[in-house]
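Might you be able to review the protein record set out just below?
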Amino acid sequence: MLALLLAPAPLLAQGAARERTDASPIQAYKLVLVGDSTMAPHSGWASVFCAKHVKSSVACLNLGRGGRSTRSYRTEKSWDIALGEAKVPGYGATYVLIQFGHNDQSSNAERWTDMTTEFPANLRRYVEEVRAAGAQPVLLTPLTRREFKEGRLDNTLEPWSQQVRKVATEMKVPLVDLNAHSAALVQRMGAETATQLAQLPPAADELAAAKAGSTLKPRPVPEQPVPSADAAGDGPRGVVTRKFDYTHVGDVGAGVFARLVAQDLAVAVPALRSQILP
């Protein structure tokens, strides 16, 4: 009896082995977000969306890049990367969210597209290729700029948004009408309050104009250089340029618009509703 009491604990446990079972396979989802700087990390809403508005069963990848249009995103091969991600197996469903317009409107030779012909044609091609990859496309109208004239929002991206809506209807693609809903929200805020959505506070003259119900002409936004493929491993670290403007968003703005996208996506894609957090 004494020998039994003094026996090491592992020996005592051998006679009562614990049962072991396997976990059930999860139902995983994937979201691939494609767009411009209003979606990109540090200047857009999508990283906050991925961090705060999806469950852990959702792999959420923000591939938004500053200064890109429906044309340049493809020609620089970023679209090839997105399609590769869309083809990765193992997910119950993969969705590719596509939001462009800001830089298609640009005069930059690498970016601009014709609003009524090339822009919708590029969107159609994106939709077709996402479907061919076995994923499901979701179109987003472009986030509104926050420029005001005498108390009214000057939504210069509305005509481009209408082209996105037409393609979504024509091709039966779920639509998140971010332009309409963000424009309505910013209009309710007014020019002064909307300055709080930017990356940095406005200068004194910019704030004074906003208080009067208008905004000054946007100051130029520095270009975001594309890293060289052969950059030295011991080269300088990357730098994020933050400034006040009426297009890009800081932490507050990203939170506001990420929440808006989450609300709209849960309605536009009912199959994702249980995976989207408010």
User: Anything to note?
Assistant: The CA atoms of residues 35 and 237 lie 24 Å apart. Strands lie at 29-35, 58-62, 93-99, 136-140, 148-149, 152-153, 175-176.
